[in-house]
């Protein structure tokens, strides 16, 4: 095994292409999406044209066949410009359609995976519930077997893309009499009789649409059950674990954006005849921010490399998500302090980045949940 701390020319080319696209096409959409709290739906088509919906999938399955390092580069660059857009992208490409690619039938791949990869269908991943947020096993949404399919009842909370989705990958408990982790995934097409979607107003990632979902006697045909009736729980855990490294790359992008804004402000802003960056209090903040970001970057790309080697374990994934998301939160807070009053004004991006960074110490497993995973790996029982 050789150690290599630089990106390959191919990785640099991916970064250049995505960075150009983000600067020219994404950045101009950010303010309006935030103000209107509306995701620009045409982006899915555009992402598909650029191959950005398929980064995680092999060429033979319609993807772009890139490695996890490239995937993290894409995520970092998307989040540098807008965590809201990056969240909607990831809910579709990484959470909602990955289980279909991994375990779906030919019918499911043709009707859901391929159209989603082509940006023709928008998807969401409906796991979290009002009563079972951090604890998946506390899930109460249930699926009962009926003639020709399943009947679903329950509710889902904070589901990204649900207000604009054509289908949801929905988790439900199939066999409560068997075992607590008898949880399966169902593809639910929208609109659908029995599904009510209530769009939520948010503080963070406002340009991504999120909803509360009521599910009442929803019929899902047999061909829309993914895997076995005794549960696709291990698949669900695998999906979440690998995605933690990706989420960390998102957090890295936000931290970098906040740092660049703060550094530039510290260079330009003159107070009492001196650049504020030359005051030690500000310079030290920037030094700490740069150091934390560097540590976070090494962890993120080490994690991506582990995924590419097939060697990522859940405790390492949790450590990477914990460090990167907490760094983004801390760095964006410091960026606001460096901006002084300007940090509170919407004209500057740092307030938005800080609100967005909060979402990532919560979403996809809170920091406490990551600590639980790490502590269990150390032999404790939190
Ligand atoms: C903007 C946004 C988008 C989202 N998108 C999606 C999506 O697309 N699909 C989806 O399924 N979910 C989504 N989520 C849900 C997200 O994954 C949950 O919010 C998250 O898992 C936490 O659950 P909760 O909000 O119910 O918090 P809770 O579980 O109620 O936690 C509240 C507090 O208690 C702590 N806590 C809870 N349990 C423990 C424990 N065992 N040990 C220590 N501390 C604990 C938590 O750390 C936290 O501080 C989204 C959330 C947000 C905010």
Describe how the helices and strands are arranged.
Elements lengths: L8 H18 L3 H7 L5 H8 L18 H14 L1 H14 L1 H6 L2 H12 L5 E4 L15 E5 L2 E12 L6 E7 L9 E7 L5 E5 L10 E12 L3 E2 L6 H36 L1 E2 L2 E2 L4 H30 L4 H26 L10 H10 L7 H11 L5
Parallel strand pairs: 1-4
Antiparallel strand pairs: 2-3, 3-7, 4-5, 5-8, 6-7, 9-10
Helix pairs in contact: 1-4, 4-5, 4-8, 4-9, 5-8, 8-9, 8-10, 8-11, 9-10, 10-11, 10-12
Flavin-adenine dinucleotide (FAD) binds next to strand 1, strand 3 and helix 12.
Structural notes for this entry:
There is one protein chain. With 382 residues, the protein is α+β, with helices and mostly antiparallel strands. The chain has three domains: 9-103, Acyl-CoA dehydrogenase/oxidase, N-terminal domain (Butyryl-Coa Dehydrogenase, subunit A, domain 1, Orthogonal Bundle); 123-231, Butyryl-CoA Dehydrogenase, subunit A, domain 2 (Beta Barrel), CATH 2.40.110; 234-377, Up-down Bundle (Butyryl-CoA Dehydrogenase, subunit A, domain 3). It is 50% helix and 15% strand. The chain contains twelve helices and ten strands. The strands form three sheets. A four-stranded mixed β-sheet has the order 1-4-5-8. A four-stranded antiparallel β-sheet has the order 2-3-7-6, covered by helices on one side. It has a two-stranded antiparallel ribbon with strand order 9-10. Helix 5 runs antiparallel to helix 8 (233-268), helix 9 (280-309) runs antiparallel to helix 10 (314-339) and helix 10 runs antiparallel to helix 11. It starts with 8 loop residues before the first helix and ends in a 5-residue tail after the last helix. The model has no long low-confidence stretch (mean pLDDT 95). Residues 91, 124-128, 133-134, 158-160, 202, 205, 210, 359, 362-366, 368-369, 372 line the site of flavin-adenine dinucleotide.
